[in-house]
Structure prediction request, 452 residues.
Amino acid sequence: PIEMVAWWRAFRLFTFLVAVPGHATTLNDKGYGNLHCPQKVLAETSQKGLCTWTDSEGKVIPPDPIKDASWFAQHKWSMTDKISTPVPTENKSYNVGEHQVIFTGSSQEQKDGSKLPVECKTIVTVSDTEPPVWTKGQCNAKYSIGTEKGKCEAAAAWTPPVASDNCDAQSEMTYRLPFEDPLETIFPLGAHVLTYTASDKAGNTATCPITIEVIDDEAPVLTCPPLVYAHLKDGYAEASCQYAMEVSWSCHTKDNCGSYDYKCDKAPGSAFPLGDTTVTCSVVDKAGNKAEAKVLVQVLDLAPPRITCPDDFEVAITSNQPTVPVKWPLPYTTDNSCELDVPVEVTGKRSGDRLPAGVHDIEYRVVDKSGLASSCTFQITVHDMGAPSFGERNVPKVVPGLFGDIGFRPSAVDNLEYQVIDLLDSQEEELDQDEMDDDEKVFLDKGPKKAG
Prediction:
């Protein structure tokens, strides 16, 4: 059989080596040899999550007389005696580190026919290649913190992450921290990546990055004058009237993280119409925070309009009518605001009205858009230039007087209804109108007294 042939070849080699001088096995004081087994070193890694390796596949094996026949012959081991270990190697667990597995056997027969115990060792090396695992705190977490009021930075506080290891206790691991004091640190505006590093005794490392982001959540401050005003110039020439005025003002901005310009929906220095205009100004910082302010722009008209009436004039009544139609031009008006109402006569008279004899005061008033008013007056004198005419002859009336009776009778009427009175002698008898001589008639002009 093949096994017998292999055994025989190994035995012949062994006997040959034994016969060669200088190959005696070296023994220590206790009679045990200090040499490596044919399987000198077995290197393994610890199992995941454990700090041990278990030989569940029977990888640690003793010397084999057939497979390792040359080794047996070289070191003068008996190929027929049993080889054993103090502890069974099957399913044995080995901690991380270096371990010696001792195999014992018997030497070849000595000259006296005795055998000595011999041993060899196999080194089992278990390595830890598993890095620590972060068990406390969130790696790759992002913490957003708002800036402190009035500042472009923030104090951030967080719980540092903690790692565990398959072999080392937490106290045995080393940490490399991003800050000396990781519990509270001042961060400027922006995102900051902090990387924690944990190392075990085997030199395996694990990193845990976290991000601290400081955001600007504070709105800028915009200070504008709540009220600005200007007034129209006191100009009355038609070419100098003003529909609007240029009004300027300035605002001030303040932000915790920079300086920014403001804008208004109608820029300072623009022309503003007469009256009130509300302007909205705003400023936006880099983070998008916005602030607004209202400005009330008032354009005032402080100068009243000017009005110039016609000069005083006179007219005459030349007909037998009690009145005469009189026309006059409207007053001349100017204002600095370019918008002026038509002047209004306040006494109730209009150009073209019929006026009786006498002096008439005419007053005009004009109001501009701002409610400012001005007025002017002039006089119209109407003279009675019409000749009196005789009316119907009536029977005279006799009125008792102090020195006798006085007789009256209407005899003539003019255009102003003036009375012409005949004065009769109280001693005379009542005469017929037709019998009176013209030189006996007396005309008394009493002035502008209406008959009645």
